[in-house]
Amino acid sequence: MRFTIEEYARAYSISTEMVHSRLRRNRLNYIVEDDKTYIVVPKHQVPHIEEEPVSVPQKKTTVATVIGLYQKENHYLKVKIQELEAKVDRLIDEKEQLLKEERTRIEKVYNDKDLQLKTILELINTKLTQEHVSTTTMDTLAQGPEEEAIEANIESSKEEAPVELKQYLRSLDLKSSQRKSIKRRFAEAFGSDTRILLKNGLFYLDFDRYDYSDLLKLS
Prior knowledge:
Arc Repressor Mutant, subunit A, three-stranded antiparallel β-sheet, 7 helices, 6 strands, rod-shaped
């Protein structure tokens, strides 16, 4: 008994694609007459069909359908990739911002510590200078007038590092009003007198380079 491809598919309840697949693999006996393929089946192998099944048209999978599915899938993946890339970029930006803030904080701490260290060293140096000045001028301050004590201190301070004015005046046996008068004289001359050094808001005396007897004289 022979069947067309469609009849064979209905008789054995399989798809026509499956029939074509079996034909390509030579799994079925068939003949071709007038360019039409017939599948030959022995009579005893023909299944009993009580009634002809209703033919249900099957949607064929075309190349356009497959391409459409791939395009849809690719679009979905592309959107996902863009979302992930945006998330990665955002995380990188946040991390860079955190690193910049941390670097700024560390630099500020370092600068503050460096300034503190410099201030401490300057104070130590000033203290040592004051002690040296006080030691070398003690006898002169005890024996002579205040003007001679200042001149002696100036001479003994030569070849030394700059001395802070306030600390220097404290090393002298001067009255509070006299110290204020001298400091006011330095403040008024600052800007026009190159001998006056200002550092961290404090006036310094460089006895190694300048003579300050005119500014240190007592009124």
